[in-house]
């Protein structure tokens, strides 16, 4: 159980960057961007291919950021300049990226088993510092990823409070308003989607290095995983301020992995690895519907209570009169 | 022509041209506004008032004719570039602000209207002070709620905030599109008074569309009436002082009647 939770935590933090990306497009820009399924793989594929060809894992990982940014910008251009609806723009880009990802890798998957990756480098560094005597090197991945994720989170928070960041948020909130304040919404949408997919590809690069391979199918359903993280996180940790919401999204990504890990431990469900996507879909469906049902029930209770109170006061008034 | 701050010359706009739904929205509109003019615009539904506002703000491009602001031809300037020069308040109180963002963030967005947006912080300490002072002039207590989300404000508060956001960077032109029509009478009066105070203080060249004839008479130094895409009546400051709602209605009926008669004569 302990190891399962540990690895759920590790996976969660690896995917948290992707969830932050989805948060940027889905919530901040109000743009359901399916590019994610493709750009996640682009990040993994590019990082893996570069590492295999001898590039330092650090640079390989950072190049994923750039590739994802470009992919996202294309989706934005399709939508704003080509006037294609958001969902379709994302789907088109996702399909296009499938071929591009195959081109990047030259085949359907690239193994990193005997290669130096970001994580083996971190491990080496960890041991060279002598930290492995104090904390097991197993922890190095988790600790470094927590640091990376927090740094990215803080950068996202800061960015969304800059003049450009405020304009991007207003674009998702009220396009008419922000246009009347001299902001070019086309450009802001392109930039926002670029940043979102940069984070998604970044996450893909880490996931590929962590699992030891990049596969052309590793991004299937990624947008739903991202949505699940965002929705679960918001529901559990709240959205009162921006800083809190980005934290919630990271928390959501971890909780999502823990839920999955727990689901697999329930014996009578007899879950197989292939069931993962189905479970994810069910979690998102529940997360989308449950709040409405809860709200309904609460509302009905409130009404009932008010009704009873009213009856009581009327009765009292009646007694007083009598 | 240096003296006109806003100049519309021979503006035509037709919707659904060549179809059965063809509608001439604006027909040969010529309009000059002097710096500091406060013009109220009245007219029935479909008279072309909103189209006029959209042509000036760049939401719509005229079929022909030109728009000049401060002597510069802006006819083909896209909306977002033109908004540097134009402040706008819409009829819908939801339209002028971003609901999930805080009051100070909304103000920061408006503050950047006539500047290039950068990676600098939107809400700085210095700006915050300035926002607070600006909000005080509204007398709504909003200066104590800088961190409240705008979605939580009432319609009147939102509209007052929109008005402040549209004006505090002192644009060349202020466009008010029935900005009190969606409010209850008390709130509408509040926003009307704010409008009067702000325009008086900032001397903004203003064009205000309204359905309320009394409001159109009370505010501003000039009144124009539109009908079927044309300006049918243009009343200057002196005449406007003596104007009453009854006189305005009578005048409208007279012009319309004449037009109707002349149409009949042509058809007959």
Low-pLDDT runs of 5+ residues of chain B are none
Radius of gyration of chain B, in Å, reads 20 Å
Helix content of chain B: 25-40%
The counted number of beta strands of chain B is: 10
Overall pLDDT level of chain B: 90
Question: What global shape of chain A is seen?
Answer: globular
Briefly, what is this?
Chain A is built from 12 helices and 2 strands. Chain A is mostly helical.
List the topology elements.
The complex is a heterodimer of chains A (322) and B (268).
Chain A: H1 2-28, H2 36-52, H3 57-80, H4 86-105, E1 109-111, H5 118-128, H6 138-159, H7 163-173, H8 175-180, H9 185-211, E2 213-215, H10 222-237, H11 242-265, H12 276-321
Antiparallel strand pairs in A: 1-2
Chain B: E1 6-15, E2 23-33, E3 38-43, H1 49-57, E4 64-69, E5 72-73, H2 79-82, E6 86-89, H3 103-111, H4 125-136, H5 155-167, E7 173-177, H6 185-202, E8 205-209, H7 213-218, E9 222-227, E10 230-235, H8 237-241, H9 245-267
Helix pairs in contact in B: 5-6
Outline the structure in words.
- The complex is a heterodimer of chains A (322) and B (268).
- Chain A is mainly alpha-helical.
- Chain A is built from twelve helices and two strands; from the N terminus they run ααααβαααααβααα.
- A two-stranded antiparallel ribbon of chain A has the order 1-2.
- Chain B has a six-stranded mixed beta sheet, with helices on both faces. In chain B, strands 2-1-4-5 form a four-stranded antiparallel beta sheet, covered by helices on one side.
- Chain B has helices at 49-57, 79-82, 103-111, 125-136, 155-167, 185-202, 213-218, 237-241, 245-267, and strands at residues 6-15, 23-33, 38-43, 64-69, 72-73, 86-89, 173-177, 205-209, 222-227, 230-235.
- Chain B is an alpha/beta fold and 268 residues long.
- In chain B, β7 (173-177), α6 and β8 (205-209) form a beta-alpha-beta unit.
- The model of chain B has no long low-confidence stretch (mean pLDDT 90).
- Chain B has nine helices and ten strands.
- Chains A and B meet through α7 and α8 of A and α2, β6 and α3 of B.
């Amino acid at each position: 159980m302990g190891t399962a939770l540990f690895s759920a935590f590790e996976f969660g933090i690896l995917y948290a960057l992707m969830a932050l990306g989805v948060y940027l497009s889905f919530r901040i820009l109000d743009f359901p961007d399916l590019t994610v399924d493709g750009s996640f793989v682009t990040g993994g594929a590019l990082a893996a291919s570069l590492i295999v060809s001898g590039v330092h894992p650090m640079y390989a990982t950072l190049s994923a950021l750039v590739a994802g940014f470009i992919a996202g910008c294309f989706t934005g251009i399709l939508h704003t300049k080509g006037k294609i609806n958001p969902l379709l723009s994302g789907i088109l880009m996702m399909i296009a990226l499938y071929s591009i990802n195959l081109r990047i890798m030259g085949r359907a998957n690239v193994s990193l088993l005997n290669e130096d990756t970001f994580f083996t480098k971190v491990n080496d560094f960890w041991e060279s510092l002598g930290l492995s005597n104090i904390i097991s090197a197993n922890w190095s991945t988790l600790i470094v990823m927590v640091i990376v994720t927090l740094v990215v989170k803080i950068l996202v928070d800061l960015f969304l409070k800059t003049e450009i960041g405020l304009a991007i948020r207003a674009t998702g909130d009220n396009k008419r308003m922000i246009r009347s304040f001299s902001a070019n919404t086309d450009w802001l949408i392109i930039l926002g989607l670029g940043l979102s997919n940069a984070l998604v590809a970044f996450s893909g690069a880490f996931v590929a290095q962590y699992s030891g391979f990049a596969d052309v199918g590793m991004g299937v359903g990624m947008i739903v995983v991202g949505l699940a993280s965002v929705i679960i996180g918001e529901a559990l940790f709240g959205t009162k301020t921006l800083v809190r919401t980005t934290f919630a999204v990271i928390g959501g990504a971890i909780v999502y992995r823990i839920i999955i890990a727990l689901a697999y431990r329930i014996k009578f469900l007899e879950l197989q690895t292939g069931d993962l996507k189905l479970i994810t879909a069910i979690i998102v469906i529940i997360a989308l519907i449950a709040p409405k049902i809860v709200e309904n029930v609460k509302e009905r209770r409130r009404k009932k209570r008010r009704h009873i109170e009213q009856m009581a006061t009327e009765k009292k008034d009646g007694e007083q009169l009598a | 022509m240096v003296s006109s701050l806003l100049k519309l010359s021979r503006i035509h706009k037709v919707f659904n041209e060549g179809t059965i739904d063809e509608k001439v929205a604006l027909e040969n509109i010529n309009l000059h506004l002097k710096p500091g003019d406060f013009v109220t615009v009245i007219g029935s539904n479909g008279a072309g008032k909103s189209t006029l506002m959209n042509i000036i703000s760049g939401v719509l491009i005229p079929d022909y004719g030109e728009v000049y602001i401060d002597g510069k031809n802006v006819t083909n300037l896209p909306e977002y570039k033109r908004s540097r020069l134009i402040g706008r308040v819409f009829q819908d109180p939801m339209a002028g602000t971003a609901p999930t963002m805080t009051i100070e963030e909304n103000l920061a967005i408006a503050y950047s209207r006539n500047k290039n947006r950068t990676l600098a912080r939107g809400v700085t300490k210095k700006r915050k002070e300035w926002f607070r002072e600006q909000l005080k002039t509204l007398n709504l207590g909003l200066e104590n709620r800088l961190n409240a989300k705008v979605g939580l404000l009432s319609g009147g508060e939102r509209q007052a905030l929109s008005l402040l956001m549209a004006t505090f960077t002192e644009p060349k032109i202020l466009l008010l599109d029935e900005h009190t029509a969606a409010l209850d009478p008390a709130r509408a009066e509040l926003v009307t008074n704010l409008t009067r105070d702000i325009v008086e203080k900032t001397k903004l060249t203003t064009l205000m569309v309204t359905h309320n004839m009394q409001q159109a008479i009370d505010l501003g130094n000039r009144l124009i009436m539109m009908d079927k895409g044309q300006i049918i009546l243009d009343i200057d400051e002196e005449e406007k002082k003596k104007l009453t709602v009854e006189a305005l209605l009578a005048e409208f009926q007279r012009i319309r009647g004449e037009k109707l008669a002349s149409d009949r004569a042509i058809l007959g």
